[in-house]
Amino acid sequence: MAKRRVGGLGRGLNALIEGSYEKKSERVSSLVPHPVNSVGLIPTDQIEANPYQPRTHFDQEALQELAESIRVQGIIQPITVRQTGPAAYQLISGERRLQASRLAGLETIPAYIRKADDQQMLEMALIENIQRENLNAIEIALSYQRLVSECNLKQEELGDRVGKNRSTVTNYLRLLKLPPDIQIGLRDNVISMGHARALLSVEDAQHQLNLFERIVAEELSVRRIEQLVRQGVPVAAKPNQAQPAEDALPVPPAEVKRAERFLSDRFGSRVQVKPTAQGRGEIRISFDSAEDMHRIISILQPA
């Protein structure tokens, strides 16, 4: 007797799970509560969001692409949930897969059911968030801080949980001691993790900010900043250093700002326009992920 499949689930794990049910009554039984530590098909409308989910923004274009993949291939990896009632579940991990499955029109989704209290929910959500490939250093540091403060983990325990040694965890947590402007620069990829670590060896916050401004204005390398810090070179601009008048610059600052706003709106990403005194310059477009990069490239391509 040929195995029956539910349309729209594709050839992924959904099909493998449902393919084992020969009769309608047996397929319906897949919707009743499942034992802990088992994988089963859960109706998507019975799963509520994880209240401890640290991610608040999900790229809608990337979700649509994932939904299209799910329509074709099905769900490859089950989401993880905990049961909160006879027909109620709460998501632990797999927010993007759940959202994309709903966009794809799936009525059920394969899920691993496990037991977890509120603290474990928070811990698992944060750790899954840390393991994403496109997190910036500040997002990682904030997640580490939440694990320390809200889950009462010591740094050694935190390192074991996320598979990092204590020194790595400590270096990320130290980033949160930097002035807010520098943290924003690190978050937006204006400076690198290496720059930030060099700035941490400067005790005075104002000197840190002055160095940060020089990094941005002069495009100083990490090695150069480390040299300046070791040598104790004054980082503030010299009082007698003549500054070019705005009207003498090849590209007036007001025009640079207008160009940045226009390009940021055009690409939906942060754009920096960096002219030089010689009339040259460069335009930098930031992206958050490989999908975001391809989106920007598609905008640049001629119709």
From TrEMBL:
UniProt entry keywords in alphabetical sequence: Chromosome partition, DNA-binding
Example of a GO MF term: DNA binding
Matching CDD domains: SPO0J_N
Pfam families xref list: HTH_ParB, ParB_C, ParB_N
Any single Gene Ontology cellular-component annotation: chromosome
ParB-like N-terminal domain mapped to chain residues: 40-130
Alphabetical list of NCBIfam families matching this protein: parB_part (TIGR00180)
Family statement: Belongs to the ParB family.
Name of this chain's protein: Chromosome partitioning protein ParB
Taxonomic source organism: Solirubrum puertoriconensis
